Amino acid sequence: MKQRVVWFAVLLVAVLGVPFSVWAATPRQTPTKAPLAVQATVRVVESVPVVAPAVAVTATAVTCDPLTTRSLYGWFTSNTTGSVYNSSYTCAFEVGIAAYSMFDDRIGNQQLFDYTMYTVAPRQTINLNVKIPDCKAQLDIFRGPVLHSLVGQRYGERLLSTRFPNTTLCAPPVEEVCSQGQISRLSGVSNNQLVTGVLNIQAEVTGALPQKVEFALTGAQTTNYTDVNSPYYFMGNNGSQPNGWDSSTKPEGDYRLSATYVGLFGESLAIRCEPVAVNFSIRRSTPTTEPTATSTPLPTATNTPVPTATSTPTATATNTPVPTATNTPVPTATSTPTATATNTPVPTATNTPVPTATSTPTATATSTPLPTATSTPLPTATSTPLPTATNTPVPTATSTPVPTSTPVPGNQCVPQGLGTAGDFNVFTFGNITQSNTDIEGRVAAGGNINFQNFGVGVRLTNSNGTRDDLVAGGSLTYTNGSVYNGNVVYGTTKSLNGVSVLNGTVRQGQPINFANEQTSLRNRSQAWGGLSANGTTVYEYGAVKLSGTNTTLNIFTVDGAQLNNANGLNINVPASSSVLINITGTNNRMQNFETFLTNVDQTKIVYNFYQATSFSLSGIGIKGTILAPFADVSFSNGQINGTLIGNSLIGGGESHHYPFNGCLPAIPANKSVER
């Protein structure tokens, strides 16, 4: 056997001029940390014929397509080792193995821990080795250069194999992020200050700007606020003008305000640094002095001055002046006492107590309560309900029938097509329960909503109370968080604790007919699911690959069982075209893979789970809108850049505000739901 191999190598060198190193080269490695002494195993295939065209082996190896992976096969043999086989007769490839630390289940937040690079020669099998962290990691075997960061980029078709050793997530890189930027101080208020009036409190940042600054006020009143734009003010700012926090309208007591620098690691991992805090107090002197001014003057004005004013001046005024007018001596005897009795007591009794008794209490009683009683309720009672009652239903009534009124299925493209639900980031017919995350756009549920440590509408524009951003058809239970730019509406009962509604109001009402929306969306979902595909679906190496050529609307059908176990999703269609992906199956999931888009924008994609009654999302970044109107959705972690429509929703996944703005097929108005 050895002799045959040697003679075969000599034949290549002597006759064809092919260096033996090209055919059976020892792999090259470039470790990032401690060098790894890895010797590749060379497997010689005896039956490979050498024909005349092989003379160009050396040139072909140089000009081989560096992007192709059709000749490469990779697999793992353990948590630290893997292998790659190159089936090409002519091409050598650069391959590698890398370990990425995992802080959560999002690919874009992983951090490169270690990697090693090799060259695999034609018809060669090599072994690869890499170090791994003592926490959860993703191992990748790939072709081409290593990715030092996964922010905005993935291996895609270059990926040959993947493995996930360990189960405990790695500790977040707090020190790394917080050393790049921090809050130096809170300006606008001093520690232990007795405050009055409007405070403009700013979190001054040095170094890299944060993703956001989270303010938390505790004490006599609790308020949470998040500012995402520099400069970072408590209660935000309008351009260069801070909105301010008016202490005159807040309860007396002691307060503590903390500001937390939240940095971004990777694509979406929020790192919270050590907060900076300040203590201050609100004390008012008016309530203390008013009782003193009222109680003391009244007894004095009533008991002492009144008898003096009545007995002494009256007798003097009646008896003394009459004799004075007649006799000369009498005025002399009475002029001094009379002047003294008349001038001194009377002004004292009349001028001092009376103004004190009347001016101070009266002004206090009239000026303070009356404006408070009249100015606050009136604007609230009149301004808030009127815009809400007129603005919200009107778009709903006009926008929903448009797609359903066209009787030609599939042959026309109707803009939007999702009715009222298309105006929301998350829309369900039943309950929503989420915590420790946020929905960047609007959210509506026909049932109950239960939020904890939650934000709503941070990426929306300020509606000044003219838009309903949080709508619960049933009860609303909300603990700690903020609704940033619109109104809160609940159907039956509400419980709001530590929740700030910053640019809207809270009211009871039913602005959305959820029953109508449910019927309409279920009709459409099933009608779209029955349309014929005009695009191509390919299942290859665990990935689902969709390609279409229609410049307006590309329709695909995907087997739900294939998608459940997919390791990637690729969509390639003409720019500006819309995409409708109909997924079969009643029990569906999308987990632990990335979506790769070519030409198409994520705001023009709809994933239609028209048969699903159960649907789970985890460890994934969805690019596009999900329509699953029959499904109870479990969204444990990850993110969606689009609208999520389901029967119900539970979990901690993030919903990012990328509303669908493409076209969907028109459906008959009389189409009924078949279940």
TrEMBL record:
Keyword set, alphabetical order: Signal
Positions of the UniProt region annotated as Disordered: 284-408
Extent of the signal sequence: 1-24
Domain Choice-of-anchor A intervals: 418-657
Biased composition (Low complexity): 286-408
One Pfam short name: pAdhesive_15
Keyword set includes Transport: no
Keyword Signal: yes
Name of the protein: Choice-of-anchor A domain-containing protein
Organism of this sequence: Herpetosiphon aurantiacus (strain ATCC 23779 / DSM 785 / 114-95)
